[in-house]
Amino acid sequence: MDSTAVEIHNETAGVNEFERFFKLHWSRVLAVVIRVTHDRGRAEELVQDTMLRLYRRWALVRNPEAWVYRVGLRMALNSVRSEIRRTNIERRAEVKAAPIGRDPESALQAGEEAILVRRALAGMRERSAQLLILRYSGLSFAEVARLLGLSPGSIGTLLDRAEKHFQKRYLALSKRDLRSTPGGGVCI
Amino acid sequence: MHLKQGEIRAFLENELQDRERVLRHLDDCPRCRQLLQATEGRVQFTTRLFNTADLQTETSAASVALAFEEFEHRRSQTSLLRSIVRAVPRWAWVSVFLCILLGAGLGVQHIRKAARKDAGPTAEVGQPPAAGQNHPSEEAAGRQNGSTGDRGPGPGHPAFQPSLGGPPGRFETGPQTAPTAELSQLRLFGRVVSATGQPIPGVALVASEAPESPLFGPPGPVIGTTQSDRNGRYEMLFEVWPDRRIVVLPSHPGFIAYRHTIVAKTGGDFRHDHVLWEEQSTVRGRIMDDANRAVDRAEVRLLVADPLGDRVHETEVASAHSELYRRVFSEPNGAYSLPGLPTGHVASVFVVRDGHLGEQGGGTLQPGDNIWDFRLKRGDGVDLIVKDQQGRPIRSVTATVWREGRPLTGINILEGDGKVRFTLAPGTSPFTCSVFADGYLRKEVQVDPKYPPREVILTEGLLVRGIVVSEEGEPIPGATVSFVRQEAFDQKDGASHMTGFPEGQTIQSDSQGRFEHRFSVLPDDRFTYLVFVSHPAYLKVNGSVDREEILSGFFTLELPKAAGGIEGQVIDWQGRPVGEFNMSIAPAEPVIPPDPAKILELTRRGRGFGYYSRVLDPNGRFSVSQIPAGDWRVTIFITSPSIWSTGSADIRITKGQPAQNVIIRLGRPQSLP
User: Fold this and answer.
1) ipTM score here?
2) Collapsing DSSP states into helix, strand and coil, what is residue B136?
3) Are B53 and A38 inside 8 Å of each other by CB?
4) Nearest chain A Cα to B15, which residue?
């Protein structure tokens, strides 16, 4: 077999390997990213971009699974941060429709809470935010540790710390929202 | 020794191996039990918030395959170089943009107005022109079209000079400012899928102008149609300006679709997926009055909330939102029926009937029939006749009511045929009513139900008239002129707010190239309009007109004729073809053309700040048609995270002789600071 044939063979094998990886992880990565963006279309775009980046670095990335989760989450969090900068989240809350099976009032409340959650996450340290999102997406401590490159024994402590930080930020944001809403709470 | 915080957290999540040890310790240690309770509360708090939104995270095998197909498509379209360009920090793009602006000498207004500042007293706002005082150019245009011309600026309007053969300076060039927005191309694309994520081929998508009424009005004229392909993909192209609203309605037998409104910000790619729903519900019921009699011809409006409200999204290119509404009238026995609604979605119903107070209700749509009955109470009627200054009734009137700055509910308002009818509950306190109609100024009136005003007279808005001509002064019929409000300030309170006119107003020049339009603005408001003028045979132009120009009452928009085109290729410093970089074409120095704002940007992905957008092909080749004759400079900028490079070529485009095989060579790359 000449060298060209070997190269072609390797390339094809790489493509097949990547396709397998893509099909295996697409749904899970997407589900995690949706939890950050709350927008399936946007999440699909972000995961596509992440996969494209991974494809270009396929030969260089040692742990593609961890890489794709981390980069996907980072891009999703960046996307939310940009959104906040454009102050569109608040506007979206006004036009956001009610999720299935909820009455409009509780749907509106849920929408506002979801926005605060995303804002709180966007303001946290990246690793803490990733930790929370992965854990609350249903991944076990061991899986979270593997994807984020952490020791399984440290996950409990880090998660607890991240939750404290999250709670603090969330409550601060919701208080600020109350203050800024006319007639919507006690002015402090 | 106490438990570690991490141990407690792991214990709560069943992630700890030796749970027995922790349990034993918790039995003996009140401090750790307290810590456990606090941690548990925090976990519950976070869990509840993370599960607030009903996110549809499930993905079918078919949609994974579809996603991979899309990935393959992207991979084939996207080169490594593109990824480098995309990775360029924003500040680098900004600096490149500034370079373009500085280097190209951007900044000439494209709209040549006929209003001369030394042409007599200021025109009276909205005053109709006096007969027999037509503008010379209009008269010329009229003669060319076999008409004597029956309109022209009145005596108070600035004199107009024909552009053909006139001495320099007849057209005053506006301030040397760059246009702030432009006509550009929006590529709307995405997929049409079912609720389970399966692609639906053959779905007809119809794009229309947005209706004036955002919800219950019929859509405007159709501006495009397409069908989804076998993978459910669709693509549509539109020419847009900022805030242009386009309504897209998919339709397919057996499915229910939401209507989507796309609001453009700039040109570029905007992905928007459509979900079609299969399960159908019906809302039906009867409308009775408080004396238990059937209410005939009651209007029933139903609005359904999109459960994928999270898909209401916004990018730098455009934003989108969706809505689904129905409207029917009750029959003589008070019955109404609204079939074909998506099951499981939340619907709101509003019932209005002349002489009755409005009622509303709603809930989640159950499979099959949903019986929603309404009982309307009778109310007192108050009529307002809306007339113009000549005493003629104004049709298409809209009214809103409020009290102490808050919108009022419970007042039934019916508009139409120059009349606004309120139905009020007995004992309703006085309230404020705002009445407005397109082309007229908004008016607020106090309505005391005991002593209601009989009529409201609206003042006509500002009349703007003009003509679209070629560089040679020939009138151009059929040109599209769009005015888009840039800002509107009320001088009274200094606040920026709506003054009651539609978002964008598009008119066409008539057979003599003339157009006229009445703006619903106050003469003493401060405002600026962006103006876009286009015609298939001419170069599109854009610019802005300010208050002075609009108050001048008449102005001329000049369209340069497209003369030739340019074709060529971009190569790097080593002679290799490159693609997908920013490219601009600007007039070459030292030739200063009469209208140096002829900047033409070609940017990656169809976005740009010039007149046209193009995408270089993977071999770096480009092609632009419809460029006016003149000397031009084609400039290429390339930048990566660490280096930048530029190249340019001077070309001359003459009528009928396009510049072909223009090779632009990039210089050796320089390091970025």
Assistant:
1) 0.73
2) helix
3) yes
4) A141
Q: How far apart are CA B570 and CA A117, in angstroms?
A: 47
> Dihedral of the CA atoms A145, A150, A156, A162 (nearest 10)?
-100
- Distance from C-alpha of A44 to C-alpha of A30, rounded to nearest angstrom: 7
Contact B67 A104 (CB under 8 A): no
Nearest CA in chain A to B363: A103
Non-local CB neighbours of B149 within 8 Å, separated by 6+ positions:
B134, B138, B139, B141, B142, B143, B512
Side chain identity, residue B623: S
What proportion of chain B, given as a percentage, has pLDDT over 90? 3
Q: Which residues contact A99 (CB under 8 A, 6 or more apart)?
A: A107, A110, B53, B54, B307, B309
Q: Left if phi > 0, otherwise alpha if psi is -120 to 50, otherwise beta: which for B269? A: beta
A92 to B190: CB separation less than 8 angstroms, yes or no: no
To the question of pTM greater than 0.90 for the whole model, the response is no
For B646-655, the pLDDT digits (tens) are 777 777 777 6
DSSP annotation of B126 reads: T
User: Cβ of B312 and A156 within 8 Å?
Assistant: no
Q: Which among A52, A100, A170 has CB closest to B71?
A: A52
Contact criterion met (CB below 8 Å) for B251 and B228: no
Tell me which residue in B13, B55, B309 faces A35 most closely, judged by beta carbons.
B55
B6–A40: do the CB atoms touch at under 8 Å? Answer: no
Contact B312 A26 (CB under 8 A): no
Q: Closest residue of A to B10, CA-based?
A: A156
What is the least distance, in Å, from the CA of A17 to any CA of chain B? Answer: 13
Give whole-number Cα distances, B71 to A47, A51, B31, B466, in Å.
10, 8, 54, 50
Q: What does DSSP say about strands B359-364 and B280-289: parallel, antiparallel, or unpaired?
A: unpaired
Residue B666, CA atoms < 13 Å, CB-side half-sphere:
26
Taking the CA of residue B276 and the nearest CA in chain A, the distance in Å comes to 15
Determine the residue of chain A that is closest to B7 in CA distance: A156
Tokens for A38, please give them.
């709350």
Min distance B110 CA to chain A CA atoms (Å) = 31
Rg (C-alpha) for chain B, rounded Å, is: 31
Using the predicted structure, report yes or no on whether residue B556 has a pLDDT greater than 70.
yes
Beta bridge partners, B282, equal B369
Give me the residue from B7, B45, B71 closest to A167, CB to CB.
B45
Query: Got the DSSP string for B141-175?
Result: HHHHTT--------TTSPP----TTPPTTSSBP--
Residues of B in contact with A167 (CB under 8 A): 42, 45-46
CA distance B352 to A67: 58
pLDDT in tens, B320-377: 888 788 888 999 999 999 988 988 888 888 888 877 887 888 888 888 899 999 998 8
Q: What is the dihedral of CA A79, A80, A83, A88, to 10 degrees?
A: 140
| B164 neighbors B195 (Cβ within 8 angstroms) | no
